[in-house]
Amino acid sequence: MASSTCYFAGLSLLCWLLASSSTASAQLSPNFYVTTCPHLENIVHFTMAHVIRQDHRMGASMLRLFFHDCFVNGCDASVLLDDTPTLQGEKNAYPNQNSLRGFEVIDRIKTSVEARCPNTVSCADILALAARDAVKLLGGPTWTVPLGRRDTTTASMSAANANLPPPTANLSSLISLFASKNLTARDMTALSGAHTVGLARCSSFRTRIYNEPNIDASFAAVQKSACPVVGGDDNLVVLDMSTPIRFDNGYFKNLMARQGLLHSDQELFNGGSQDAWVRLYARSNHAFAQDFIVAMVNMGNIAPLTGSSGEIRRNCRFVN
């Protein structure tokens, strides 16, 4: 982690990127497809812009797909694999059931990329670029994505069930889960800011709004109208009531007002070690954007397959 001197000198992004350099990042390069598929980023951005104009939710969905991919054995597109008679994918793992969406968007991008650059670009890299463009198109920051990942030929239902943080997790569990992926608590808090967009199902926050003391009473009352004590498990509520379709620091302002929708959200501002980061991000959208960029690059460096490992899938849903 960058030193406080480095941070307050206004060099947070540069210093933290240098401090967070790794073998994985050295194997990836933003220029990986510069000669083999020079129009790749334009293709991804054009498709994402069209999709998000039609459905703003898809921006949050792309972020969630990328997160759920990287946290299960690395950023290798395992989350995109369908079940087959010989392979059990991750789509039906408990954290993914009825919550992941946007697979058809990746299919659409992949088809366009294959038409221009056949057998060249991995599904894992397409997902990383789609997540970046989703943030930008919702009004958030943009960044250079290191590329060169390859696609796995396997998936792990058990890892998906074990490695993805549940909405009921406490702070120590969250820190431990992120540390297991070489992500710091600061990374974790910045990445959690992705909950400034998107929706959550009633079943993931019912216990919080009815039973937890660290919640604003008027906020809880509003949520109870959409999430009854019994039934309505699949009813959807926005994670950030203030600016639900804009990527900004509203999430952190909500936490300070005790209006985090998920238990795991409010744990970041509950008298613990992350309170100072929440205060900083609530005060400065710029500070949040800088740290979110670094955290996304760090997450994208989780155990990528490179070189001759894995493959370049022709169809993101199936092994070649």
TrEMBL record:
Site (Transition state stabilizer) location in chain: R64
Limits of the Plant heme peroxidase family profile domain: 27-320
Family per record: Belongs to the peroxidase family. Classical plant (class III) peroxidase subfamily. Belongs to the peroxidase family. Ascorbate peroxidase subfamily.
Name this protein carries in UniProt: Peroxidase
Disulfide linkage: C37-C117, C70-C75, C123-C316, C202-C227
Active-site residue numbers: H68 (proton acceptor)
Gene3D superfamilies per the UniProt record, alphabetical: 1.10.520.10, Peroxidase, domain 2 (1.10.420.10)
Binding locations of Ca(2+) 2: T196, D240, T243, D248
GO MF: heme binding; lactoperoxidase activity; metal ion binding
